[in-house]
Amino acid sequence: MAGNLSRRELLAAIGLAGTAVALNAGEAAADQLDPRPQYVDRSRLWWVKETNTPTTEIDWQTVQRYDETKTTRKSMPTYVGKEKADELNALNARVPKEAELEGRPGYTTKDIALKEATNAGRVPMSFLGPNKATTPKDRGVPIYEGTPEENTQIVMAALRHMGAATVGVVELDSNTEKLIYSVDPDGKAIVFGDDEVGSEDEKKRVLPKKARWVIVYTIQMSTETMRRSPTVLGSQTTTLTYTRQTQIQAQLQEFLRALGYHGYGEAATNALGIAPAFGVLAGLGELSRLNRLVTPEYGPMVRVFKLVTDLPMAPTKPIDAGIMEFCKNCKKCAEACPSKSLSFDREPSWETKGGWNNPGHKAYFEDSTSCRAYWAAVGTNCGICFASCPYAKSDLASVHTLVKATASMTPAFDGMFRKLDDVFYEDYKDPEEWWKANLPEMGIDTTQGHKK
Amino acid sequence: MLWMLIGLVAGLGVTLLVQFLNKHNIKLRWYEWLLVGAGLLLILFNVDTYINSLAELEPKAANLSLLFLGLPGLVLLVLGVRLGYSRKGGQPKTTSKAA
Description:
The structure holds 2 protein chains of 2 kinds.
Chain A: H1 7-32, E1 49-50, H2 72-80, H3 82-102, H4 109-118, H5 136-139, H6 148-162, E2 167-171, E3 189-193, E4 199-200, E5 204-208, E6 213-220, H7 223-226, H8 232-259, E7 263-264, H9 275-281, E8 286-287, E9 293-294, E10 302-309, E11 319-320, H10 323-330, H11 332-336, H12 368-378, H13 384-388, H14 398-409, H15 414-424, H16 431-434
Parallel strand pairs in A: 3-5
Antiparallel strand pairs in A: 1-11, 2-6, 4-5, 6-10, 7-10, 8-9
Chain B: H1 2-23, H2 30-55, H3 59-88, H4 95-98
């Protein structure tokens, strides 16, 4: 009975309750103390520092607009010769069939079926958008007008609602314009024009100079799935993400249209501009040893997309989360890469490896031809470097936050963290176990990186 | 929710520990409290790592955390209490007998 409590018992009970209250109150107080203004993505992790310049050094004088058809996706025969490219294409077609027949894990009929399924249901991608939503003019109302900060805020909210993970904005100027491809993957030129609205014909796509803002967004991939790479099962998380993007892009274009503005999107996969470059400048992540974007929230487990708009927006700043510094000491992806396509150099370099790289920035340039050749050998895309990255972890256990936050402040423990990652985690998991894992929707945690 | 449960368990654990120390009339010195505190922190951290690593489908990480966090935590905790206990000679209070 309460009336019979001794002084010691009463104090013990108070201590017990106090512990629980203090833990919850501390969390609430931390939320209230968050000084960041409303228009910035408030869900950003506390240890991610915004900076004025990215952790990638850029020589804007050297940077030129890049022709996307020079990537190995389109120009493999130019780099390895037509005979070799044909041989690799034949191998790429043969391997999955042979593997399916022999029932190789990750290549079984159910794995192939899932890949086929996730490839289905894509919305047609277009530069100008579906143009089906009503405009304010159609509805007889004035166009939406907000401050650039408000516009950034509503686009972030809308995109997250549509399924994007993180969102940033880059303002186009004489430098950042160079990150828009000179030629799209389908061979059409991208030019800047003085017209009020963008246009497209058989040879070119015209971006109006009025459209100055690039919306950059990531869509999560499933780490748990990609850790079954390189298999067809592992590769279909990429497929699923691209399928989701077609819908998200169309919805974003329609959202902007219904506000009274325009959204100029990617007409095909990897169109419009250099995704990692825009991702870095928008502060969605840092360039890494993978020569791809590594984000603080998901590591490399994202695909990066972009869209140009004439809705005036407040740009977001680049970040320093210690990721590039971590890459200098880690090298785990380079060691895991079966084709040894990634750089082992300690420091990033200005020297490119081939025509598939765009010069003008300091990076760990990769050998894209040997990477692609390995894709052919396994009959699917790879993803081992993505899956092996120590940043490609879920964030449920507090230890991940502790490690990432420490790495953002000092590189002193980076080597130790890399070794612990080797000991604690397996880079590759059994594809057959994936089917029994009872994963969340799309294999991703949509609260990851956004937990308070 | 997990942290609320951890908070409750930690509160209960500390209460029991204090009761144990009082019962045996053990007065810990500052460095013994430091060992006990560090041990408790490691054990709490281990609870979080173990449960959430399992949720992350990382059983290897969960199991290894017992070795790398839980065991050192337990050792520190026991060491802190044991130092005080052995200094006192481990004699229980005799208050009831005196009464």
